Amino acid sequence: MKYHAKGTAADRRGSYSVWGDEWRNLTMKARCDNMAVVATIKASTCKERKAMHLMRCLAFIEATRGFTMNI
Fold first, then answer.
1. Which of 34, 37, 63, 68 is most buried, most CB within 10 Å of its CB?
2. Nearest to 37 by CA among 52, 16, 17
3. What distances in angstroms separate CA 60 from CA 2, 17, 33, 35, one per listed residue?
4. What does the chain look like in DSSP terms, one character per residue?
5. What are phi and psi of 2, to 5 degrees?
6. What is the pLDDT of residues 9-51, one digit of tens each?
């Protein structure tokens, strides 16, 4: 099952933390037209401190809620 996230990044982060338990063992697909964001997510690292904090939050939510996200 694929879920296409819509809305702002903050909306998606919030929805992951709220509904993550219902998405256990599923793969979520997010779409993004910002190549810098895509590269950061694919590399799982970033020099920008605030962006790296968001990456850690997303990784924590994915790990604790049992789903994966692809971009």
1. 37
2. 52
3. 20, 10, 24, 23
4. -EEEE-S-HHHHHHHHHHHGGGGTT-EEEE----HHHHHHHHHT--SSHHHHHHHHHHHHHHHHHT-EEE-
5. -115, 140
6. 445 556 766 777 777 888 878 788 889 888 888 888 888 898 8
> Nearest to residue 2, comparing CAs of 61, 58, 70, 65?
70
What is the rounded end-to-end Cα distance, in angstroms, of the chain?
15
Q: How far apart (Å, rounded) are the C-alpha atoms in residues 38 and 1? A: 22
Retrieve residue 10's tokens: 């903050």
- Are 68 and 25 in contact by the 8 Å Cβ rule? The answer is no
Task: Specify the pTM.
Answer: 0.62
The amino acid occupying position 35 is M
